Amino acid sequence: MEGRILQLISALRASGVRVSLAESAEAFSAVDIMGIINREDFRLSLRTTLIKNASDLPIFDKLRQNLAQLMSGEPLSKEQLEQLARMVGLNNIDDLNYQKWMAQRMERALAFPEVREALKQLMDQLREMGMDGKRLQQLRGQLQERMQALQKQLENFAGQRIAENLSQRTPFDRVDNLMNRSFQNLTEEEKRLLMHEVKRLAAALRTRIALRQKRAKSGNLDAKATIRANLKHHGIPLELRHRSKVKKPRIIVLCDVSTSMRFCSELMLSFIFALQGQVRKTYAFAFINHLEYISEDFNGKDGNAAIASILRRMPAGSYNTDLGWSLNNFCDDYLDTVNGQSTLIVVGDGRNNYNDPRIDLFRDISRRASRTLWLSPEAPELWGTGDSDMPAYAALCDSVLRVSNLNELTTAIDRLMIA
To answer: pLDDT tier at 363 (50, 70, 90 boundaries)?
Structure first.
């Protein structure tokens, strides 16, 4: 039992929860007093002594459940598998090439990286406590076997679900069905279909936004200006005056063009180029591990050629996404583009590959803008897992909009075009 408690403490630390030596000792003392016969008393003893901030409670509950299941060798239930399928978008996948990748996404949702780190720390602690090397090796082997069994269960489930999805697929998917399919689940052919669809959607948006701007053009009645203008009419208000009300937004957009975000950002840039007539000024940037100013690429007439040029210049690869360093580039060279009339938009998943997220810089940029919007394809349930810094970024935004498919992206762009 002491080993399991140490394992839980290691997992909490690996997940970013601060647990001091004194709090660890308190946990053992509480268990000695409360005992382990009553499972709820045992859980509350650990939670009360190890968790000091309410925001860390979900991490505690999730890790304790996952670690307990791993230690017991119990497979995931049907309900747990279905919940994971909904969380990672498995129910929309109909390509068996994505089987292992979807299994890895489910592993991430179950905090497997944190569990692995916890197991490593547990082995180190047990070795320091003097556990026999043979027994330690045996324990390590058992835990690895159980983790591999869970991984195999996830991979088999992913394959089975994809096969079920394939059996229900019609020979020709309609574009309106693709509109609601996750970007991550699209084939290259389907992506090409949606790129053509963007032109039609952009034209419809342009018409709707222009009409909205025309209706709001006059602004509110300006009483003082109306009185002054009608002095020649002896004060009779024959000529009404309105306050100027600019409706076209001024946009600063930062697009993550790394592998996981590439297609979403490509669509976003296509919309931005197509809607230039409804925008007062656009400052567009792309980043992976550094920031590049790309607005000048759109000075020509062919938006598709401009986007293709940007993506060739910033190829997706094995190098790590580093938004923190990109924010540093922005503050060094482009901070003066942001003012009180600007709408700041970030298109990204908030994952930094464990690099410094530079929340301080994002806070400074956000404060200078009139509003800050973040467009992310990931479900909120995945925020904060693994290398995700999304919770910290989200706290500094006016809105975070889910854009996992073209339908959601179109809705988000229509919303951000309201000044």
So the answer is: very high
Contact 273, 298 (CB under 8 A): yes
- 397, 366 in Cβ contact below 8 A? yes
> What does the pLDDT look like over 38-75, one tens digit per residue?
556 555 566 666 666 666 556 555 556 655 565 566 78
Report residue 149 as tokens: 């069994």
* Calpha distance 38→229 (Å, rounded): 82
CA angle 316, 321, 323 (to 5 degrees): 130
Tally of CB atoms within 10 A around 382: 20
CA atoms within 13 Å, Cβ hemisphere of 129: 12
Q: Write out the H or E segment, with its range, that includes residue 282.
A: strand 281-287
3-state secondary structure labels for all residues of 124-167 = HHHHHCCCCHHHHHHHHHHHHHHHHHHHHHHHHHHHHHHHHHHH
What spatial distance separates the first Cα and last Cα of the chain, rounded to whole Å? 59
How far is 39 from 42, CA to CA, in rounded Å? 5
Cβ–Cβ under 8 Å, residues 414 and 209:
yes
What lies within 8 Å, CB to CB, of 53 at 6+ separation is: none
In the chain, where the domains are located: 2-167, 184-215+248-416, 219-247
Dihedral-angle region of residue 89 (phi above 0 means left; psi in -120 to 50 means alpha; beta otherwise): left
**What pLDDT sits at residue 78?**
86
Confidence tier at 413 by pLDDT (50, 70, 90):
confident
Q: What is the DSSP string of 342-400?
A: EEEEEES--B-TTS---HHHHHHHHHHSSEEEEEE-S-GGGTTSTTB-HHHHHTT-SEE
Across 196-202, average pLDDT: 79
DSSP category for residue 98: G
Architecture of domain 184-215+248-416: 3-Layer(aba) Sandwich (3.40)
